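Protocol check, entry for the methods section draft. Step 1: assemble the input record (protein sequence plus ligand SMILES). Step 2: submit for complex structure prediction. Step 3: store the structure tokens unaltered in the notebook. Ligand used here: fe (ii) ion. Step 1 record:
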Amino acid sequence: MSEKRLVVPQPIDAILDREHDMENQILAELATGARMMAGDNPALPKMPARPTILDFFRFRFRTIAVNHMLQSARNASKAGHDEKVVLACLLHDVALGGLIRGDHGYWGAQMIAPYVDEEVAWAVKHHQALRFFADPAVNYEYPQAYVRFWGPDYVIPDYIKRDYEAARAHRWYGSARAITLYDLYSFEDDVHIDPEEFEDVVGRHFKQPEEGLGLDNSPAAHMWRTIIWPTNFL
Ligand SMILES: [Fe+2]
Ligand SMILES: [Fe+2]
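Step 3, stored output:
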């Protein structure tokens, strides 16, 4: 495979390019003998043949998300939370790691649902809404960062309010709230944690598919496959 491989932006990222100008320019290069990207992109680290969840931390997720999730998990563990909550913290931003930003809690929950306890996926889904609502009982305040991101007059979308209210009344509220507590303090640049630190927790609580995560046949496998081969044309 020596010919040039072409990569086009994902539709969601190219949505402002309504007339496909960018895509058409790239496709025009096919005339020069280039081909569309398929399979392993040589610009990315090679994944093991049967990737585990921690291999995605090692070889795919963006560094900022990796450091953030590992720090969250370590802080939850230090605070004495049970392993289910530690796992939820470890995985809470997997969608931001390498798939998509918008509604990352909802996407992340679906990505992990086939492989974790229902409570863990539920907590990951709801952490996104809970981030917007203070809980003085556990010293959780509305994040200053959110004031910077959207300004002081930001109106929280209705679906976020709805899902927050449902979560508030749910028996698993504490697990989702715990994620938000360790979310806040887990953005330090100078703390580097080896994913290895969570090998045991993952081994006990994440149902690693034998074929490799993404190469299995679960309802979420395609999402992981997309991260293994994120630049495939189709
Ligand atoms: Fe998040
Ligand atoms: Fe986070």
